[in-house]
Amino acid sequence: MSIHRKSRFEVNIMKQAGNVVALVHAAMKDAVKEGVTTKELDDLAYKIIKQNKADPTFLGYHGFPASICASVNEQVVHGIPSDNVILKNGDIISIDIGATFKGFVGDSAWTYPVGEISDDKKMLLEATEKSLFAGLEFMKSNERLENVAGAIEDVAKKYNLGIVRQYGGHGVGRSMHEDPFVFNYRTNNGLILQRGMVIAIEPMLNLGGDDVEVLEDDWTVVTADKKPSAHFEHTVHVTDDGPEILTKLL
Ligand code: MG
Ligand code: MG
Question: What is the number of alpha carbons within 13 Å of residue 210 lying toward its C-beta?
C-alpha cells in the first residue's frame, strides 16, 4: 500500500475541486423534485462542473457514461442517469459527484428525499449522515483508520441498518481511487492516520440486510432484498487538529 500525503499546496487545489463538487450538490438539492429525470440532473451537473473549469471525473471512468451516479431507492451506488428514470414523490436518490480541477479530484455523495418520504426512509437518511460524521471525528493524526470504520458501524448497528460490505471509502488525490481502502465496519486494519492524507469516507447503509448485487447494466448496485439504501460521502484531509472537509463550499 502506498499512500501519498498531500502538501498544503496540493490540499488547496483539492479544496477548489471540492468546492466545485459542493456547488453541484447545492444545485442538486434544489433540482431534485417529482417529475425530474436523472438525465436532467446529470446534464445540470455537467454544465456546472464545466462552468467552473473542472472536468466530471466519473465521465468515461472505466467507461461510465455520465457525470454523476444517480441511484434511486434500492439502488445503492453507480446508478446510470437516464431519461427513463423519473423521480416520484416518496423516492430517495443518492447522487455521487466527482470533479477534477487542475489534476486533483473531489468526491462527495449525498442522498436526497423527493417530496414527502416515509418515516423509515427519513431514519435511514438521518442515520447514514450521522454515521458519516461519527466516522469523520476520528480523521485525525495518530488515530487508527479502524476507529473511523468502527464509528460508522456503531451508528449502523444502533439504528439496525445493513452495512454494504463490498464498497467503501478510499484515498483521493490525482486519482479518484488511491490507497487506502476504507471499510465501513471494523476490520483488522492497523493503519495509523497521518497529517496530509486525503481520504473519502462514504458509508452506504441499508434499511434491510447487508447484501447487494450488480444489475445487468454492469454498473448499478442494488440491495439484494430491494430495500432502500443511502449513501453519504465527503473527501476529507487529515490534520493534527481533526478532519478538514474538502468537499464543501469555499
Ligand atoms: Mg463518490
Ligand atoms: Mg468515493
Answer: 11
Please indicate, yes or no, whether the overall pTM of this predicted structure exceeds 0.90.
yes
Q: Which ligand is nearest to the CA of 95?
A: 1
Q: Which ligand is nearest to the CA of 177?
A: 2
Q: How many residues does the chain have?
A: 250
For the chain, give the percent of residues with pLDDT over 70: 100
pLDDT digits (tens, 9 = 90+) for 144-168: 999 999 999 999 999 999 999 999 9
The domains located in the chain, with CATH, are 8-245 (3.90.230.10)
Angle at 190 between CA 184 and CA 191, to 5 degrees: 80
CB-based contacts of 43: which residues, under 8 Å, 6+ apart? none
Which residue's C-alpha cell is 473549469? 53
How remote is the CA of residue 100 from the centroid of ligand 2, in Å?
13
Distant-in-sequence, close-in-space partners of 215: CB < 8 Å, separation ≥ 6: 221, 222
pLDDT tens-digit readout, 241-250: 999 999 999 9
What is the arithmetic mean of pLDDT over 111-121?
Answer: 98
Ligand 1 centre distance from Cα of residue 97 (Å): 6
* H or E segment to which residue 98 belongs: strand 92-101
∠232-234-94 over CA atoms, to 5°?
Answer: 30
Query: What separation in angstroms does the CA of 124 have from each of 20, 33, 135, 222, 230?
Result: 27, 19, 16, 16, 7
Q: What residues have CB less than 8 Å from 152, skipping those under 6 apart?
A: 131, 132, 134, 135, 163, 184, 185, 201, 203
Nearest to 96 by CA among 119, 123, 118, 64: 64
Ligand nearest to the backbone CA of 170: 2
